[in-house]
TrEMBL record:
Superkingdom as given in the UniProt entry: Bacteria
Entry protein name: MmcB family DNA repair protein
Organism: Rhizobium rhizoryzae
Pfam family name, one: MmcB-like
Length: 167
């Protein structure tokens, strides 16, 4: 079930993301969901940095996807190398109007059109330590549970009830 809106105070829609970034994000979320990943947007890491997308694969791998919507967006960002310490695989995601050769070869690359996305280059694996994986997985789970509860409160509808009416 997709959560459309949680409210103005939600980190999911805090106004910092451009329409183009949201379009890229939507396509990447569709791709990762099709790959059976659990996906969270805008997760704050222990370092205080906030990732655009983080996912947990069926095998338990943690992927971080950094969204870039222009050459300038990529050039001014100095935080993305730190994301390696919080993921097994690091990806960039963009759209057709951004030249793909600006992205480093040692990161994965995803091209999105908002209706889906294509994995153009897989990311090399750099496995997290067991303690880092546990801390990040717990943070992922806590955040997902908090957002689900907030969505239920905002809509006044239990997601369990919604699932039974859809079937």
């Amino acid at each position: 079930m997709t959560i459309i809106r949680l409210g103005a105070v939600s980190p999911l829609i805090d106004g910092r993301q451009s329409q183009r970034a949201m379009m890229v994000r939507r396509g990447v979320q569709i791709l990762l969901n099709d790959m059976r990943h659990s996906v969270l947007p805008e997760l704050t890491l222990a370092s205080g940095r906030r990732v655009d997308l983080i996912s947990l694969s069926p095998k338990g791998e943690i992927w971080i996807v950094e969204i870039k919507t222009s050459v300038e967006d990529f050039r001014v960002d100095q935080k993305w190398p730190d994301y390696r310490d919080f993921s097994d695989r690091l990806f960039f995601a963009t759209h057709k109007d951004v030249p793909l050769d600006i992205f480093p070869e040692d990161c994965g690359l995803i091209l999105s059109d908002g209706y889906g996305a294509h994995l153009l280059r897989d990311a090399p694996e750099h496995r997290l330590s067991a303690s880092s994986r546990k801390a990040l997985t717990l943070s992922f789970a806590r955040t997902a549970a908090q957002r689900l509860l907030a969505a239920e409160w905002a809509t006044g509808q239990s997601f369990e009830d919604a699932e039974t009416t859809e079937n």
